[in-house]
């Protein structure tokens, strides 16, 4: 167990969320000015151009960097797996952490390919959170301490944060959070996760419906949704997103589970995600709907549903390429290329 975070009551977290730095419009103007001189028709690099503007706005620098990108994977275990909501047993969460350490997981290969740092955080895997169908996942103190732990994980001079997670059962947790925040039918939010069969899908949908019904009178407060229906990795990622914002670090969101942490913050204040882009849209059915609600257009759509930050880490390749174009391209004057009249 590695929960050393200072416990902040939810009121302190709300205060912190209200005190985030503004985005830097002067840095964006300077990026646009340089972009207009580069040897290409205006706008021809499409979304790559807006990615550089976004980096500059968040970092507050006319020449942003992606020199020290970090993939942070937060791992947690969930009492709700007792409801038969995942085809895999709970011990796979820890076994996959050992696989990450040994370099054998997909995320290890992606990090090596694109030169990304990787840190994995074990969030009390031996103590699964409460079964959300009959109790709260966490009490306020534990939830706030886990958010603080996630905040403290964002340090060490990184200039881009990729969020990932690992936790058997956590697509049920994410679905419950979305159902609580956004309403509708439980079944709309429930997908097959790691590949649950038809009977399991029925159990999973019932678990999400039961959980949200059980906590219904508390779902107006997003932080209550997080502590009652969430998990430690979701709470830590919410803390990490907040800390990244206060340290002016851009964040790349991964799939269905990571976005549940983002959705909690978005429900508090949509501007809390201004420093985040969506790395990819997951094959988990409702993720596209979630991204639309968050106002985020995914960079990639590769049919992936792995987690581990894998889709987001792949998207860093595009962000790096966008920045390399912006910083490395010649201007019309430098290259002796005639600009349009
Ligand atoms: O993030 C996603 O889009 C995603 C979609 C499906 C599965 N996962 C991963 O699979 C695990 C949860 O799946 P499950 O079926 O046990 O709820 C967890 O470790 C997630 O990282 C992740
Ligand atoms: C093997 C395995 C690897 C994973 N990586 C992220 N979630 C996962 C779930 C399973 C089951």
From TrEMBL:
PANTHER family, per database record: NICOTINATE-NUCLEOTIDE--DIMETHYLBENZIMIDAZOLE PHOSPHORIBOSYLTRANSFERASE
Gene transcribed to yield this protein: cobT_2
Entries under CDD domains matching the protein: DMB-PRT_CobT
Record lineage: Bacteria, Pseudomonadati, Pseudomonadota, Alphaproteobacteria, Hyphomicrobiales
Record GO terms (molecular function): glycosyltransferase activity
Uppermost EC category: transferase
Active site: 308
Keywords from the UniProt entry: Cobalamin biosynthesis, Glycosyltransferase, Transferase
Protein's name according to its UniProt entry: Nicotinate-nucleotide--dimethylbenzimidazole phosphoribosyltransferase
Alphabetized Pfam families for the sequence: DBI_PRT (PF02277)
């Amino acid at each position: 167990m590695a929960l050393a975070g200072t416990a902040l009551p939810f009121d302190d977290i709300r205060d912190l969320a209200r005190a985030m730095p503004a985005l830097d419009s002067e840095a964006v103007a300077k990026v646009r000015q340089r972009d207009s001189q580069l040897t290409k028709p205006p706008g021809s690099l499409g979304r790559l151009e807006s990615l550089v503007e976004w980096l500059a706005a968040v970092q507050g620098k006319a020449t942003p960097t992606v020199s020290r990108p970090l993939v942070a994977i937060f791992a947690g275990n969930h009492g709700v797996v007792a409801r038969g909501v995942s085809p895999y047993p709970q011990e796979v969460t820890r076994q996959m952490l050992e696989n990450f350490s040994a370099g054998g997981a997909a995320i290890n290969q992606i990090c090596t390919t694109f030169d990304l740092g990787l840190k994995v955080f074990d969030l009390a895997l031996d103590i699964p959170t409460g079964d959300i169908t009959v109790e709260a996942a966490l009490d306020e103190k534990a939830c706030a301490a886990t958010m603080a732990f996630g905040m403290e994980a964002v340090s060490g001079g990184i200039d881009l944060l990729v969020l990932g997670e690992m936790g058997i059962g956590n697509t049920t947790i994410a679905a419950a959070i979305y159902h609580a925040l956004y309403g509708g039918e439980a079944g709309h939010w429930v997908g097959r996760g790691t590949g649950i069969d038809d009977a399991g899908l029925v159990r999973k949908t019932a678990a999400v419906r039961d959980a949200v019904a059980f906590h219904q009178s508390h779902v107006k407060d997003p932080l209550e949704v997080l502590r009652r229906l969430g998990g430690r990795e979701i709470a830590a990622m919410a803390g990490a997103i907040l800390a990244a914002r206060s340290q002016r670090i851009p964040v790349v969101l991964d799939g269905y589970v990571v976005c549940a942490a983002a959705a909690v913050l978005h429900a508090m204040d949509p501007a809390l995600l201004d420093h985040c882009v969506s790395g990819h849209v997951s094959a988990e059915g409702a993720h596209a709907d979630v991204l639309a609600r968050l106002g985020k257009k995914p960079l990639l759509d590769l049919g992936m549903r792995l987690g581990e930050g894998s889709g987001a880490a792949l998207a860093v390749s595009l962000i790096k390429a966008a920045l390399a174009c912006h910083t490395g391209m010649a201007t019309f004057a430098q290259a002796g290329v005639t600009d349009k009249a």
